């Protein structure tokens, strides 16, 4: 999952601190056995924030005398500094981290994450986590996703969908589309009415997810596996990638997407949708709780029409730094987040739990969210995320697809990705 960064202003300070400490090595400072240092980047009103706050209370209740020292970090803050911080005395005992070969896989190959394989089997987590969700939690010796060792534990799942403003759809006489033809007709109808239909963030993950989703319409499972898991050759100017970038550029030209959003952040895009400024937002289930809490209009969701594949996977991972001296406490906390009472809260708050009691999910929108995800997994339609394969690819995709939005020939924008991708592959 890629999310809007929060606390981005702290990145420079954290990076400087981490650089100063890199040579120290994790675990050199004396650890307090009565404190569990926890980092994550979920807002308090998100589904995960709600569930994990409940898990913190449960942990402290069941561990008398132990205090959870929680710090909310920005997604990009952790993304950019994790390798340095985890090799320093400032490392937490447990933290949320992005899944994929370029992130959790990279840290595992550097020896910075604890191998939890034995713990997984002893606690039965492998029985709670379905195989298709577990792919992102397991890595091989080179850090490639889908390996045989557990270096992270997900306790929720996620996927990207279309959020829509029912009131704007009704006002402009637009029906919820079920085919791509109907979707295009809906986009045209909004534009004809003087309304930009899709919110967007060119400076972060939203633009690249549009391109990837459009490319997936021309892809198959082998194409995805080659790209994400290095099982075959990848060509960034093939029919799929070219279709994705070219179609997205056409959408900008037609006014489906506002060209002025080329420098916009995902947080701004999400807030604009929640204020009712756009009829639709194509983004992840991580927004679900906030949209539910902050939107003042009636809204709903639908899966990308006629999607052979769509973006999605397990949620982000709980990882435990190899240098942590409180690993047992960290494992206890993970275990609590997988218990049914916490999983049920996550589901009713708008998350996609992986071990909840289905009958305990009472919110109708949440039921649909979970049902749509289950249909995607049954059909083997989850295609992960475009930035995952190699380190630094997120920034490369942002830069190149901003060029697409600015009118550069799509193939010229795609071509440099080949070198970045190949340079980042495991050697």
Tell me about this structure.
This protein folds into two domains: 8-156 and 314-370, 3-Layer(aba) Sandwich (D-Maltodextrin-Binding Protein, domain 2), CATH 3.40.190; 158-312 and 384-424, D-Maltodextrin-Binding Protein, domain 2 (3-Layer(aba) Sandwich), CATH 3.40.190.10. The protein is built from 19 helices and twelve strands. With 427 residues, it is of the alpha+beta class. It starts with 10 loop residues before the first helix and ends with a helix. Helix 1 runs parallel beside helix 3, helix 2 (47-62) packs across helix 15 and helix 2 (47-62) runs antiparallel to helix 16. It has helices at residues 11-21, 47-62, 75-85, 104-109, 117-123, 125-128, 131-134, 166-171, 180-192, 205-216, 221-229, 239-254, 266-274, 288-294, 327-337, 340-348, 364-378, 393-405, 410-424; strands at residues 35-40, 67-72, 94-97, 138-139, 149-150, 153-154, 156-165, 280-284, 299-302, 312-314, 317-319, 352-353. Strand 1 (35-40), helix 2 and strand 2 (67-72) form a beta-alpha-beta unit. It has a five-stranded mixed sheet with strand order 2-1-3-11-6. Strands 7, 8, 9, 10 and 12 form a five-stranded antiparallel sheet that branches. It has a two-stranded antiparallel sheet with strand order 4-5.
